Amino acid sequence: MQTEPLPRIEPLINDLKSLKMGDFLKSNSFKRYCIKAGLEESWRNAFTFIQKNRTYFIAGFDHDHSDSLDALTLIMNHLYKNDSTNFFYFSNDLLVAYADWSKEDLKVKDIIEDLELLSAPSEVVENITKLGNHFSKPVPKSEIPENIWNADKLETALDKMDSSIKRKEYNMTVTYAYYCLEGLYKAFISEKVPDKKHLDKINQMATAVRDYLRSHFIANQIEYPEQVINLIPTITNAISNARNSFSDSHFDGESEKWLAEFARDCVNSIGRLIIKFIK
């Protein structure tokens, strides 16, 4: 793996590092972002590679800080070479997450110039420009493009949950379940109920999904068991409460295997129902 930035993206990476985001890359906020983006394994692999190949050790030096920045370079090199579209949206989402974590306006002038040189999509440039006055002059939060949800992506998410259960990382399973439902609901609402796209609470999104399905069935004179549709917000509340009480993201207690398996199976059932309605 190339640990030096690719020449074309070196200015961008240097300007990202100038934001002093090393502490953010070590934080649980960044780990949660990686899970949302489906990059948690890629990040772990990149970080481990940097650690194993570092040729120095300095007593009292925060190696995790510098290793995290080098791992970011690896990830961005890989994305730029193999998937330029995701490279730009990764840059967008990373900066949005960092701004929310730091609670400060970002110095984005040079970053915008770097992105424009790389012919970044205009919506990415606009989103990142807003981060320059994200807190001092509140504006509507930038819209993070949602990944398309389909059966293959659901299977990938379920595989991650199965793997975490096998490793007895039951808290991680609950966290996966939460973010999987959140992603499914956002994709569904974007497709079917765009006037509800402002919703940012998973419980509210679940209710919006249930209400749409109920209206759809009634409008098309489709008989359905009311209790099944009502389970969508009920189960979502249960998984949300479990995550808030037990997950790794909140460091409080240990969820049991049964809870992890229950969360996984619920995501499977709700996900397959919802995907039928997403184009």
Topology (elements, then pairings):
Elements: H1 10-18, H2 22-26, H3 28-37, H4 40-53, H5 63-82, H6 84-102, H7 109-117, H8 122-130, H9 151-166, H10 170-192, H11 202-219, H12 226-246, H13 257-275
Helix pairs in contact: 1-7, 3-6, 4-5, 5-6, 6-8, 9-10, 9-13, 10-11, 10-12, 10-13, 11-12, 12-13
List keywords for this structure.
globular, mainly alpha, 279 residues, single chain, 2 domains, 13 helices
Question: What does the model show?
Answer:
With 279 residues, the protein is mainly alpha-helical. The chain has 13 helices and no strands. The protein has 2 domains: 7-133, no CATH class; 151-275, no CATH class. Helix content is 69%, strand content 0%. Helix 1 (10-18) runs antiparallel to helix 7 and helix 12 crosses helix 13. Residues 138-147 and 247-253 have low confidence and may be disordered.
Short description:
With 279 residues, the chain is mainly alpha-helical.
Radius of gyration: 20 Å
Number of strands: 0
Query: What is the arithmetic mean of pLDDT?
Result: 84
Task: Please give the domain count.
Answer: 2
Number of helices: 13
